[in-house]
Amino acid sequence: MSDICAVSTPLAEGGISVIRISGENAVSVAAKIFKPLSCESVENMQGYTCAYGRITDGEKVVDDGVLTVFRAPKSYTGEDVAEISCHGGIFVTKQVLRLCLKNGAVLANKGEFTKRALLNGKMSLTQAESVMDTISAQGEYELASANLTREGRLFKKISGVTKRLVKILGELAAWVDYPEEDLPEVEEENLRTSLKESIAVTEKILRDYDNGMVLKRGVDTCIAGKPNVGKSTLMNMLLGYDRSIVTDVAGTTRDVIEESAKIGELTLKLSDTAGIHETDDKVEKIGVEIAKKKLDNAMLIMEVFDTSRPLDDEDKELLEYVKNTGRKTIIVLNKSDLESRIDKEFFNSYSNSIVEISAKNEEGKDSLQSEIEKMFSPEDYDADSTIFANERQMNCAQTADKYLKMALESLDMGETLDAVTVMIDYAANALMELTGEKATEAVVDEVFSKFCVGK
Ligand code: GDP
């Protein structure tokens, strides 16, 4: 395998840049361009040691810096690794990278260091995927979850189930293939128990995924209300800047606008919609349809009303519509700076969460925030649960869950053990694809295509 190199730090001006080389000859490549001042020779450096010295191109000094050496298998990739830290200028960093290329290393592909770690058995596929999650984590919970996966908890949980299924498959195969041998009959009751316990694990994993996604991806939030009640102003208040156009003309917010707002630890993915009022305007009609669909799928709906005007049919229509969606709802009574012309009691039958605000004056933001946090409390998050890094993992878990349930059903319906075996086999394969124990090259390539170069 060739020696690969890449800049592992962002290519931007900063204090330090790190250029990483990995492969059988990584240290020899480094030796050609790094003249140590703090030790005799680079070639003789032990693992986990560093040296101060000059980075040179022949006789020419390019920079001074620090070389850190890791010896196989005790390195990130499992191969010999040399990391050169130089000054963090873009030009100088590129020069050092060029020197590595000139002296025998080739440029690493996206995620190739981590891919090598995987191939050398340093980590599982799920652990490799969590590396990118750690890098992209935007908050405490995302980071905690990525770290749990990198520790290998997801892998352990799943491979426990896989081992069990493989054992069952072995017993079933022996029994089905060698009926004349006097093998103990597969106890249907034991099989049923194993399937049920395996399903409990896949179900728990899928449930954790949903909870975890709230923290990781954010809460899909729909801001609904008829034109001019202050939806855009509320959105701007939550975002902290003017994103949508606020005007006095009803119906300005035609398109669904999406933005992310940070509320404490939570991220709200806001969409500001045209109301759901009856309209003859063709463009608005499409907007209304989109708005209804958004409401049906939202994780949180903020219904906005203008308290300075009496409620009309359109407001009531919205209240009914939202109530029927059964979604988590906060009723936002806006324009509290103006004289109230509505009966607040009226809203009690529509939601337990009612907040008065003045979006224009940015008043009531705190009470709104505490209502939201009450509904999606990060404390509800099971810190010990593992959430998947991505859709790929979730799809595998769903497939396994589906086939395990089908296997149980087949067993209950008294079908042949052959049929049950096939389902269990599919489930085991899906789980092994999840952890990477049996992932195809195509799956592995797909995973690493999402990485950054240098990781
Ligand atoms: P949308 O159509 O629901 O998005 O409503 P906008 O956010 O565009 O607001 C409509 C009008 O109401 C604008 O003139 C806003 O300045 C005004 N408005 C919004 N919020 C408040 C508020 O809390 N108090 C007052 N007095 N006016 C507001």
Task: Describe it.
Helix content is 45%, strand content 18%. It contains 14 helices and 13 strands. Helix 4 (125-136) runs antiparallel to helix 5 (140-150), helix 6 (153-177) runs antiparallel to helix 7 (188-217) and helix 7 (188-217) runs antiparallel to helix 12. The longest helix is centred in the middle third of the chain and has 30 residues, at 188-217. It is flat.
The CATH class of the largest domain: Alpha Beta
CATH architecture of the largest domain: 3-Layer(aba) Sandwich
CATH superfamily of the largest domain: P-loop containing nucleotide triphosphate hydrolases
Q: What compounds are bound to the protein?
A: guanosine-5'-diphosphate
Helix content: 40-55%
Average the pLDDT over all residues and give the rounded result. Answer: 86
**Structural class by helix and strand composition:** alpha/beta
Q: What form results from the Cα inertia axes? A: flat
Percent of residues in beta strands: 15-25%
Helix count equals 14
CATH topological fold name of the largest domain: Rossmann fold
pLDDT < 50 runs, ≥5 residues: 242-256
| Cα-atom radius of gyration | 29 Å
Provide the spatial order of strands within the biggest beta sheet: 3-4-5-6-2-1-7
What is the ordering of alpha helices and beta strands?
EEHEEEEHEHHHHHEHEEHEHEEHHHH
Secondary structure tally: strands: 13
Distance between the termini: 18 Å
Largest sheet: number of strands, sense, barrel closure: 7 strands, mixed
Number of domains: 3
